[in-house]
Write a structure and sequence with these properties.
It contains eight helices and four strands, in the order H-E-E-H-H-H-E-E-H-H-H-H. The protein is mainly alpha-helical. The protein has a two-stranded antiparallel sheet with strand order 1-2. A two-stranded parallel ribbon has the order 3-4.
Length: 196
Amino acid sequence: MITSSSLVIKRIFDFIFCIVLMPILFIPLLLLIIIATIDTRASGIFKQERVGQHGKIFDIYKIRTLKKEQHKLGSLDKSATKFGRFLRASKLDELPQLFNVLFGDMSFVGPRPDIKGFANKLEGEDRIVLDIKPGVTGPATIKYRNEETILALQDDPEKYNRTIIWKDKVEINKMYIKNWSFYLDLKYIIKSVINK
């Protein structure tokens, strides 16, 4: 089980890794934001409220990939611009989450932060998912890398997400927390980069 000292180790690693990556990724990130602004005709940065550690609400940052109109679950990829689809497929739209990690709202590895209506409704042992900071990547994120494609194939994407995918993610994230090690975090980071 992950301990308080483990969380300190995770935070130190996250901060140092962020400081190393920022000078390398800042210019490419800025260029992607500018292109996204032109492409979507809206702010190139998209923010949305998510449920974080201990149920704290925070704003997650992404590069905008969709136009401003409303979108249904399972149809996001169709609603995205051509450049937006490229960003989503490559996961480059998530680069601004480096700032979430730097500010301490997220970790590089952990459960993906959910919107209200999911994580804040966890009960019993499942609530250990909220004991750690949500992650940019993690075991559940890697398994469901093509989640949008899976949902697009369902007759009722909302129901499938709540009854199948989300429940499976909770179990995967519980196992991650119970078996945490620094080596495991490095493994998931490497696997996420390689799988891109």
